[in-house]
Amino acid sequence: MGDRNLFQNLTPEQVAEHLESAYTLACSSLREALARYVKTGAPPTPAERSHFRYPRLDITWQPTGATQYTNRAWAKLQKPGLYSTTITQPSFFRSYLLEQLRPLVAEFGARLSVGVSDLEIPYPYVTESGDEFVRGNVQVADLARLFPTPRLSTVGDEVADGLWHFGPDEPRPLALFDAVRTDFSLKRLQHYTGTHWSQIQPWILLTNYQRYVDGFVRYGLEELAREGSPYIALHLPGGLSVKRDTPTKEAERIVAHAPWQSFQMPAYNLERRDRQSGTTIVNIGVGPSNAKNITDHLAVLRPNCWLMIGHCGGLRQSQVIGDYVLAHGYLRRDKILDELLPPEVPVPALAEVQLALQEAAARVTGERGEALKRRLRTGTVVTYDDRNWELRWSQERRRINLSRAIAVDMESGTLAAQGYRLRVPYGTLLCVSDKPLHGEIKLPGAASAFYQRAVGEHLQIGLETIDLLRDQLHSLHSRKLRAFDEPVFR
Description:
Elements: E1 7-10, H1 12-40, H2 46-49, E2 53-61, E3 81-86, H3 94-108, E4 111-120, H4 132-135, H5 140-146, E5 172-173, H6 179-193, E6 203-207, H7 210-225, E7 231-235, E8 241-243, H8 248-256, E9 267-272, E10 279-283, H9 288-298, E11 305-314, E12 324-333, H10 351-365, H11 369-375, E13 376-384, H12 393-403, E14 405-409, H13 412-422, E15 426-434, H14 444-470, H15 473-476
Parallel strand pairs: 3-5, 6-10, 6-11, 11-15, 12-13, 13-14
Antiparallel strand pairs: 1-4, 2-3, 2-4, 7-8, 7-9, 9-10, 11-14, 12-15
């Protein structure tokens, strides 16, 4: 680990400034060397290449008195010593970094330092589609030979999965994700969602139906046209945006021309005036593979919460199509996370999210007490990796009975397990669209009527839940998501 240009005993604000300066310099040096190589064929010298490195943030804590106690789930120190991580995009993460660092200094007396790491910045992470060396005739093999490239050996989730090894002379991990893991996911987010990663908002709705996205877009346009609305822009797949001052006809034209079909999991991002508390909806499609894929990458943004709002099959005779299921447990038959998070590890329901979902349902439907209970049922959701699980009913019926599951889908258990694994608050509210065990299947006419009636209300419950949770941010990041030996940062 390099110690060049180490700045010590910094305030959190000074840390942010030094990180931004060091990162900007490293990226500028790399881009200039790339541009020169394209123009002249001159490769970077070893001295120049030594500048293509991520900045490093160190925290040292040597307590002199009683150990500081806090009931906060993050930004706390439990063992003395050195903690370290590499940082990317410090300007974007500035508020997050300050949120973590300020209590560490004020409450624990931690000492903060900034230096230069040994980890090189891969050249694809500083390029954009308009760069000449991206759209020119340069051979990728030559770039890979002369410039730092992404190496899978440096990208991993060992810290998040508790697989990191702490040696006596090594720093402890400061964050769940280091710079190269974060950059890896930032690029993937753009590829899958069609929007720049910086436009993805910290409150995230995940769905498996485009109709929810259509409803979200209508809501966004209404909010942008409403006087006094806190929202200022709707960012669409393909780099298009609608602003508050965009005329209605022009806004509709922009939305109609957004090339969402070109992206596997298109995202729509509704930005608020404070630029820190907006809402994103992502159509993740169907299946646990997509659910794991997108949340692996969303997690590096450290979102405040992700909520699953989608459809499910009802497993109880008493349920009615259009009823809601508030998941308080998951029977994980998706299999995709079995090695990382074995099925016997419980994925707990988060009280703050559960209460907010229930209250939001009451506010939107206008029903409370027994009337709400008839429409909103709490219970276990079983998540399969096989859409045709019904064909294995004779093998699955006993397990479903033992679990007391009341609904079945293909994403919720995976999304909750990923939230638990990656320390992102999560919740699930599903809408019963069919009852496969009771002869009520999706027929075209009934399905169309159901969609028209149910989707709008369901989406509103999701949006209302986020409004409620915004006021509970401190308690939302629950200690249920933290182990006894955790990185310091949230």
